[in-house]
Each structure stands twice: as structure tokens, then as C-alpha cells.
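Aim 2, interim progress. The first record below pairs a target sequence with its C-alpha cells.
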Amino acid sequence: MHSSGLLVLSSHVSALCKGDVLSKILKNAKKLVNSTLYVHLNNAHAPLGENANYSCLRDTLSRGIVAQQNAGNAFHADMLPFVAKFYSEASILCNNIDVNLLLHNIGTDANAPTNQFNTPINCILIDHPAPNHSFLRDFVASSLCVCDNDSRNTVFSTPVYSVLEDLQIHGSEEESSMIGKYDATVIGGTFDRIHHGHKVLMSEAILLARRKIVIGVSDGPLLERKTLKELIQPVEDRKTSLKCFIRFVARPDLELHLETITDPYGPSITVPDLDVILVSKETEKGGHLVNAKRKERGLSQLKVHVIGQGTLLGETENAIDDIPFEEIKVSSSSVRFNLLGTLLKPARTPTHDFIPESLPKPYVIGLTGGIASGKSSIAKRLENLGAIVIDCDKLGHQSYLPGSRANLEIAKHFGSDIVDDNGVINRRALGERVFSDKREMDKLNSIVWPEIESLCKKEIVTSVERHSHPNAPVIVLDAAILLEAKWDRLVHEVWVVNIPAAEATVRIMERNRLSEESAIKRIGSQTSNKSRTEQANVVLSTLWEPSVTQKLVEKSWQALQERISKKDPEKPKL
């Protein structure tokens, strides 16, 4: 098994689109490569001709180069459906492999500039049953512009494998039209964590562009209705990923313009010299809306290209109100959903010097979330799986009890009128005083939070002492103010439970019988989901059915056990 590989597809693109050819190739490639696969397509122009000797790899590859030289700025029409089929198959068969279809040689003559390919290649794969290894290595070194001596020497010693046993696919000569390039293309979307659907969109935009490609990257208000929006990468990170992908797969002279957008249209209605807008089938109508806006501004109309279909649609005068720059919905949300319950950043090193040396050190999770997020229900599920849960809200109530340090300090600062004859604090009266005065609220927190932390530490020690299992326990601190009170210094991992503000509003109205205005005000007074997520090691959500929440918690727990085992292999799992 190799970490990376280069797959050279010598067959004509029209043949590769037929039946299960791609499926066979990718299945065999996955047996040899487990991390990164680069794909060089040699025959994407005119058919090779009746006299082509398909049994000879040298003849097949050489004729492909000749066809490229004769094509100019055009490519075989089957190239577009091939791109969609290729990435669709790869998403299923190679979902754990980063697969990239190189496009620098498609629709360009042989003299066009080529990217320097200095990325390590651990093996070369070919869709030919009996390849000439030395010729193929030389072809790779020259076709991919591997110029420095170290890289060339590495290529000349790289192992070669065949990933297809059937030569029949090399014989497809069906007539098909050629597609010419346009000067400039434009696309848009969120582009969160580049996946195969994004690669189809970008690849077709690259193929159709002769001079430049313009991309609008959604941010701000355009993200508000996205599922799990807090897990969307920062816009600059997304733009960097786009740039890296396009610079790697496209020819180096293709101009790239990236623009952050906060409205649905972005550069599609402001840049005059555009020719084609690429959309998904779901947002095709939005492409025509772009043309309506361009018409209002006196700009030229764009061709509307629906990705994956290989056709260019004509103009329409009927603008339909839809958002044109909507990301491909195949897997963007599912990618973020799959991040739930996984470790997003390395675990912390907590301060546990309050635990006696004689006791085993527990693994501590800090569980937090906003009002009505379902945090407590997740705590209960974790308890059922074997965790020890410490309810910091209950400890908060204890901190106010008569005789406690916090009780005495509160009475001293806020006055004896909020304390009855038995030393019990009238928390309603106290609340009325602090909720309208931030300075007084901060003072109250400075008194109560340290007391709760002290009680929490005692509970941790007591829980470890009572724990009968041979290995150290997993302790969950269920704390709404975990981050605000800086109690995260006590934990190895911060687990944040998020739900959208709209869902939280509905839950608060139903649970607390509050008005919508009051519910929104309560949510607004808390730390934002975005801020919590930025500090999270693990993110969870109770947005879906309880059965989904249970599966997410079980997934999180299993992953946690695996992390603990790796940290200390001698300790059995709970």
C-alpha cells in the first residue's frame, strides 16, 4: 500500500465514460493507494483514429498528445460528463482518499505552460494490462513537467501497477462534438471543506475558461441558514483551499480571482468581462436571475452552464427569484454533520494538582452549551454510557447556602436586606439587582464562580475515590458557564452542544412559557454558539431526533475511549 499515487488514464475519455470502467479502475487504485491519488487524463480530445494500436501503450499515449496539439482551445464533449462521473465514483469508492483530476493538458496545445509537479509520487498506475514500465516513467516525467533531478530520479524508480485488465475500452471511436473554451467563467458558493461536488464545479469552470476564472466565496449573512454553520471554516481558509486546488490541477497561466461575498450575486453582476456562469441543477434558475441583474446594469448576458450535464443552456428572459450562488448540496452539510462527535483540535493539559498523588488521574470532559441546547440530556446519555457527571448548576445552588464563603461575601457586598434571618439569600431580589447592572453582575460572578470551582474540585476528588473500576474514570463537568468561568482549565476536552438560535427560541418559548421577544433576549445575553465552537474540542447537537442524538453521543464516547486507550494503552476501556 502506498500513501500517494499517479493514475495515468490512457484510454479515450469517451470510452472511460462507458459502463463500469471507472468503477473497476478506482476499486483497483484504492487497493494500492490510501491517501492521495492524482489522475492524468491523456486522451480527452479527438478520437485516436482507426489505425490506433491500442495494445501498444506507447502508440496510445503518443497519439493522445498529437490529438491535444491539434485540438487547440477545445476538448471532447464527453469530458464534462466524465468529470461528473469520475468524482461521483470516487466519492463512493475512494471516500477516504484525496482524489484530484489534473486538467492542465485539457483544451490546450502541447506547448501550453504546465505546472511543476514536484509532489511525491509513491507509485504509478495505468489502465493498461501490459505497460512498458520504463516508457511510462519517462512519459510521466516529461508530461507532468517533473524537472528537478531528484524528482525525476524518484519517478524513474517508482513502481508501476496495472489497474485494468481489459483492453477493449481503448477502442471507442464514436463521433462526438468538441467544446470550445470561453474567455472567463464565474462560480460561487460556500466551499466549506472541499469535497468531490466542489471539485466537479471547479473542474468544469476550469475546463471552460480560456483566460480566467472568477469565484465568489460566501460569508456573513449568506451563512446564517446553513446547517451547523458554526463548523464552517473561516472564509480565508476556504479561499486558501480553493486557490491550492485550482493552482494544482489547472494550467499555471489561468487567472484566478477570489472574492468574499455577502450577497447572493457577488462578482457575477459586477464583473463585465464574464461569459459563462456555472450552477448546479438546483440553482439553475438563479443563473437566469443573474442575467436579469446584469441586463439591468447594462452588462452582457452569460451562458448558464449546469454542471454534470455537459450542455450549455440558452438565455432566458424569465428571471426567477432564486439564489444562484448556493453550494452544491450533495455533501457539504453531511461533511459538517460527520464532524460532530470528532476531535476538532488536540486535547488540553488540565490543572489537576488538587488531586492527591495516591489517586489515579481522571479524564475530564467539560460539557457546555447555550440555553435549551439539550446539554443536560447529553450529560445523561454520557452517564448511561459510564461517565461520572458532576452537575455544576447544582453546585451553584450549594455555593449560596448559609455559612458558605460566597454567602457571607454576598451579604457583605450587597447588603443584609437580601438575606433572611436564617442566612438564606433571596436570589430573586439579588437577581433584580444584578441583571440591570453589569458591574454588579461581574462582582457577583467573582464571588460565586470561585466557590463553585472549589466545590467542583472536591467533587472530582470524591468521584475518583469512590470509583471502583480499575482504570481512572471519565468525569463530565456539566456546566453552562464552563468557558466564561475559565473552568476549562480543569478539563482535557471541551464538548460544546449547539443548536440554531431559531430552534433554541422555540424550545425556550415552549419550556419556559415565554414570549418570543423574551426568549430571543435570553439567547442574546449568552455567549454565542460561534464563540463556544471556536473553543471546542468536540461539538455535538440535539437538532435532530433523539435517536440521532443517541448515535452521536455513542460515536463520541467510542472515539473518546479510543483516544484514552492510545494515551495510556495499559488502561482498559470503560
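The second target in this work package is listed in the same format:
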Amino acid sequence: MSAISPTSNERLRRRTAHACETCRIRKTRCDGRSPCKSCVESQEVCKYREAPALPKPKGDIVLETLLKLQAEVAALSQKLDAATSYRPVQDVDSPGSTSHTAAIASMTSVASHDLDAIVPLRHLSATEMFLSWEIFDGVPAIREQFKSVYQLESQRPPMPIFSSTAFPSISLETWSNSVDSFGQNVNFWYPALHEARLQGLWDSLASFTLDGCLALLVVALGQACMHVEDRFSRQGSRRRSNPESDLGTLCFERAYSMIHNAVSEVSITAMLCLFYTAIYFSYLQRPLQTDFFLNITAHRCVVMLHYPDPTMPITDYETLRRIFWCCFILESDLVVELDKVPQSGCAQMESQIALPSKFDTHSTRDTSDLSTLYLLACISIRRLLNRIHKLLYSKESVTRMQSVPDMNLIAELAHQLDEWRDVLPPYLQFELSTQPAQNDHQGFLRQRYFAAKSVIYRPVFNYVVTMNLHGIQPPGIGDAVASAEQCLDAAYLHMTNLRGFTHTVVIDTWICALSMTGVALVLYIAWQTPSLKQKLQEKIGVDRIRNALWELKLKIDDMMLTAPEISPSVSQCVSIIEATRDVIH
């Protein structure tokens, strides 16, 4: 029997959950009927309000509130980042005006969808991976001459040891020219050295100190850039030049003999010395040594940023932060091809480091602002490229998309790439064509754009090729072929837009050689795939492809010969590009 009997239940006070309006106003009991007993007796109109919605469970209310708070925090963070990550001058006609600030806020947010943009270890997008395809089984001219890039580079003789204690003789005019070249090039692409510090290095040029080492590295890099500019015009066409001066080499060898002091010291000057040593090894086309010094520099940056010195001047802290981002860009470029090389860890914490802010790297504020804009553009496209590799080319991602590529993911990444281009400030905006860019910086970023687009659509290209190799015609293969064309179009434009920009030649010759070899191999694979070959014949034609590959071979050859010594892996790339051209007919 129930604890409450029917008899007792009847004695309980009965109340309706919803009283009519008349009873509510009179504050009389309402029985909930329509009309209710009270309104019938008083001959009043009986009306009820609309029934209220059922209340949400408390768990739903908490979750909804939490999501709203998260959205508000995210919006506030974006506003704070836009306000603090870059604060250029506000002159109306200045390249750092408010409109540019807004553009940079948009540009840096384009590549921030993941917390950390990391190229996965042992990813499957390196150029070497192409040569494992069965389509190259019958092409010994390409596959059999190939050796591992790491094997070739690790067998190179070491750098010569500088035995003399004498410093190279450098006149004030030579110093001034070298500093100007360094500032217009290296300190524009990777603006980490403050103008005041740069101008003060002259007094330390012939000293056995880290400032002396830094001064020698500035001269060496300035001389390297002058040499490259003497060989190539602004848009990269070949020019006649005089033989290279030995001054840059002598300065680097002298600085290199002192670099052990930078390895053992924890200071901003030591960080700059290590970083510029890595840059010079890029010019020498020695990727393993470049990676070694970038790794040391980036690791030291991470430690110093984790344990900040409260007495550090703001200019030194900004220098440290900029070195970190430069290492992030350059190391990410290298590990795309050296996929098994351990990384420094800077990519794992890049989401925790503030972006570069106002910094006087040049004598005029406009130039300083432009160089910061350029650095931020390079950071954002590199972050996007890292995310592309993470989402499309990790082993897990490749396994997941072996059956059918994730077209929604690919479309989203392509949208983000176009979004990045759209928010570039006017000085860096480029046309999607083969026409010469208005400046070298536009041209360099255009190369990055086409490289990224080709990599985004490559999984669809791989899928179409695989289906053709096995004679399979799955549903929707026509749409896949159309998307694979996007990969081919971007690869061809990437190849034909290659120019001898100073940034490309000094920093990216080795990376560029591997990347362009990948383009050549993609074109060969497409030529062996009937559905894609037809598209190539209709759009480009065999003669234009062969001519473009020959031009590419000459360009890479020119870039390779710019360095004081020849890289065996770059030389191998030139041979593979030539062999690929020979088998396309």
C-alpha cells in the first residue's frame, strides 16, 4: 500500500500549474479548466497565457553558457592579438597604416586554426617518396641514379678550418656596402637585428668577441647577397657577372672559427651568431649544417622564452622572439624534405609565442614596417603549409585517405590558402599568372602560394593515378580528375614562376631544387596516366612541357653554381629534372 493513501491524497492541496489571467489578477484559486469554475461563477472571460517552453535541463544550460563564454574569450583573444601582435605607425600614407594593421590581423589568423602547426615526423610528402612508386619501375634513368639526399649530404667534406689568427682586411666603404646589402636582404626577410645594434658593430669588427663574430657574419652575408644580385637581375633573368670575391668566404671562415663561443654562451648576441651561421650554411647549400645550427638556435630560443630574464631590454626580447619565428620558418622548410630528422621543438610551442611587433630594423620606419609585414606573411603561409602536411601527409592521414580523399578537408585548406592571399597588404599582393611580380617579395610569396596549392590537391592526384594504374573506374572519378588538374595547374605555375630572387637563391636553393624535382616527377606521372595526360595535352602540350623542364634545369643549375661549392643533392636534382624531360615525349 502506498505511503499516501487515496483518502489522504484527496486531502492534499490541489493547485494548477497555470492559472488563468482573471484568477491571477484576483489572486483567487483557479482549477485550470477552460473556463475555470471561478470565471463561470463571476461571469468573467477566462483566458490563459500561452504555455511556457519546458525548462532546459541544468546540464544543457551549463554547456550552453560555457560555449558562449568560450566564443567570447576566442573573440577577445583575436582582438587582443590584432592589437598587440603588430603596432605599426599610423601615418595615413605609411605602409604601416591602420588598414595594414587590419590586414595583418586577418592574415595571421588565417593560419591559426590548429594550436600548433607541426610537420609530422616521417610524413609522406618528401620528394623522395615519388621514386618509390611502381610507375618508375621501368625508368632506370631516373630511379637508378638516385641516392638518398641525407646520404649525399652527410658524405660531403667538412668545412675548412681557419688556421690564421688574422682578420680579413675590410675598409669602411666595404663595410658600409656589406651592411646595406645585409639590411636590404637578410635583415628584411628575417628582420631580427636592431638597426642601432647593426650600426654599432663596426667598432667590434676585428675583435675576438661575439660582437666581432656577429660583425663578420653580417659582412659575409652582405657579400653573399651582393654576389647573387650581381648574377641575377631583379626578376631573375641571368646577367653577366665578375668572378666572386673571396671576402665573404674569408669573413665566414673567421667567424666560424669563433662560433664555439656562441654555442657555450646564453645571450642575444650568441643567438644572433648561431642564427646567421645557419643562414650562411643555407647559402652554401649545406642543409645538414643549416639544420644543426637552426636546431641549436631554436632550442636555445625555447629555453630563454620559457625562462625570461626580467632585466632583459625590450629590444632584446623582441630580437629573441623574432629569431624564434625565423627558426620556425626555416626549420619547417627543411623537415619537409628531411622527414626523419628530429625537430627542435619550436613548432610544438609556436602557438604560445607572440607574433613580432614594432621593431626598428632599418633606418626608416616604413622599411621596418614593410619587413615586419613580409615576415608575418611568411609565418602565416608556413603555418598553413605545416597544417597541410599534418592533415594530409601524416601516416594516419594517408592511410585514412587511401580509398577516397577527403574532399571537404581539401576544399577547406584551399579556401584558407586563398583567404591568406586575399588579406595580404597591397605591397605583397600578387597576381596568379606567370607575369613578373611588381617586386621580389611578391614573387617569393607567389612561389609559396603555388607550392601550397599543389600540395593541397596532391592526394586527389595520387588517388587518380592509383585508380588508373589498377584499371579501376570508381564512381565520381570524373570529379577527382578535375581536382587532380588543380594539382597539375599549380605545379606547372610553380615551376614556370621560378625566378632568381635573392631570397630564393641565398636561402632556398636546396629546398627549391628538391621541390622542383617533385614538380618534374608529378608531370611525368601525369604523362603516364591516360586521363591526366589528355588534360596536359589539351592545356599545355608536350613541347611546352619539355621546354619548361629545360628552362627549369637551367635555372636550378644557375642557382646551384652561385654558391662557392656545389651541393651533390642539388646536382642530383638537376640530373633528375633533365632525365624526366627526356622521357616525356
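Residues 271 and 300 are 8 Å apart (CA to CA). This observation will shape the mutagenesis plan for the next reporting period.
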